[in-house]
Amino acid sequence: MLFIKKMRSFFIVLFVILLWQPQTICAAEKQTIDANSIHALSAVLLDGDSGRVLYEKEGECKRANASTTKIMTCILALENGKEDDIVTVSAYAASMPNVQLNIEEGEQYYLKDLLYSLMLESHNDSAVAIAEHIGGSVEGFSALMNEKAKELGCSNTCFLTPNGLDASVGEDTHGTTAHDLALIMRYCSWQSPRAERFLEITQTNAYSFTSLTEQADGSMIPGTRNFSCTNHNAYLSQNPDCLSGKTGFTADAGYCYVTSLSSGGRKFVIALLASGWPNNKTYKWQDCNKIYQYATTYYQMRKVMDPAEGLQSVRLQRAQNPDYDLKAQKSAMPQLTDMRKEVLLADWETMAIRLHYPRSIEATGKGLRAIGNAELLVDDVVIDTCDILLEDSLAVKNMPWFFQAILKKWAMFF
């Protein structure tokens, strides 16, 4: 019995020792995609919410991008035109090479109908007709395209055509980077005021329309030519998370593809340039599947810590106090404007909040004002900011206030 009691005591002590051993928590090892397993010469995986690059392979290398250009043509037409606009076909638009709707000079169409032709069948002649209607000319529309690209943060993009056909003017060549193309698709899918309509058009399986005939009174009736369009974005049927996408191919560009996807509150954009040449038409789908599997496996939405928890009160120098006390200091608690509540994060990444604001400021009495900002960082990269505000409504100490304070101090001696 004594032996059993001793053994029992021994195991209890051993258990306690093991229980209190300090635990070492190892950070998750960073995962990536072997660049050699991606067919595309350039590829980018983008967080559709923050715009952060999650994976890239030569993402900043400028290349021809073929008909993926048409996502910019479509969104600019939606933002700058009306879908019931009447578009008259020019000789130049009608002369575009395949793929064509085969519109003819002088014919008229609703802008809406040409947008479906543009995005479902990728018709080059429809793209030029749209561009001339919106921009006055291809050159005028290209200027709008490049202006919008710059606005979206695209740093190495040059659009010379609305349809993506290979083109050069002087030292400029038509093309973009996988990163820039992903930024444009992000805008089209979620940020543009016409994003919902863009998605509706690009998700349509089939669409039919007719040319237009003008009546003597100026009204329009259906014309004699009938057209049917079928969506050629096969990834819509291959992946239920696919929201939108655009394929492209030219001799210089090879097979290209850009797509937006959504899963469980997560938003992703994948852009591929030069994902093989004939006969490698399926490479782009293989690349998409591999990159998307990586995205959904390793990236999850995480709650952002409350940045207000780190705030401290701010001293309001020279603010009046009702007691006319020369030594008393007034202070106020700052507050925050909205910051995102969740962020897409991998296990090996770190999230932090950085606060920038003074601990003491001069009172102004002008009410609520911004005194600094809070930054949300992932691996030291800022992905969101918000203002730090302070209610500064207390009156500033002035001569009458000081006079009253001195009188009060003197009164203490009598």
Outline the fold blueprint.
Blueprint lengths: L1 H18 L22 E6 L5 E5 L12 H11 L5 E3 L2 H4 L13 E3 H11 L2 H12 L2 H14 L16 E2 L2 E2 L4 H14 L3 H8 L3 E9 L5 E11 L4 H4 L3 E9 L3 E10 L2 E8 L9 H16 L1 E4 L10 E4 L12 E3 L2 E2 L5 E4 L5 E6 L3 E3 L4 E12 L2 E12 L6 H13 L3
Parallel strand pairs: 13-18
Antiparallel strand pairs: 1-2, 1-11, 3-4, 5-6, 7-8, 9-10, 10-11, 12-16, 13-14, 15-20, 17-19, 19-20
Helix pairs in contact: 2-4, 2-5, 4-5, 5-6, 7-8
* pLDDT averaged residue by residue: 89
Question: Could you state the oligomeric state of the chains shown?
Answer: single chain
- Count of helical stretches: 11
Strand order of the largest sheet: 2-1-11-10-9
Report strand %. Answer: 25-35%
Tally of strands? 20
Instruction: Give the overall form.
Output: elongated
- Rounded to the nearest angstrom, the radius of gyration is 31 Å
Structural class, by secondary structure, is alpha+beta
The CA-CA distance between the termini, in Å, is: 89 Å
Describe the largest sheet. 5 strands, antiparallel
Low-pLDDT residue intervals, each spanning 5 or more residues: 1-7, 9-26
Structural overview:
The protein is α+β, with helices and mostly antiparallel strands and 414 residues long. Helices cover 30% and strands 29% of the residues. The protein is built from 11 helices and 20 strands. It has helices at 2-19, 70-80, 91-94, 111-121, 124-135, 138-151, 178-191, 195-202, 235-238, 283-298, 399-411, and strands spanning 42-47, 53-57, 86-88, 108-110, 168-169, 172-173, 206-214, 220-230, 242-250, 254-263, 266-273, 300-303, 314-317, 330-332, 335-336, 342-345, 351-356, 360-362, 367-378, 381-392. The strands form 7 sheets. The chain has a 5-stranded antiparallel beta sheet with strand order 2-1-11-10-9, sandwiched between helices. A 4-stranded antiparallel beta sheet has the order 15-20-19-17, with no helix packed on it. β7 and β8 (220-230) form a beta hairpin. α7 crosses α8. The longest helix is centred in the first third of the chain and has 18 residues, at 2-19. The protein is elongated, with a radius of gyration of 31 Å. It starts with a helix and ends with a helix. The model is unreliable at 1-7 and 9-26 (pLDDT under 50).
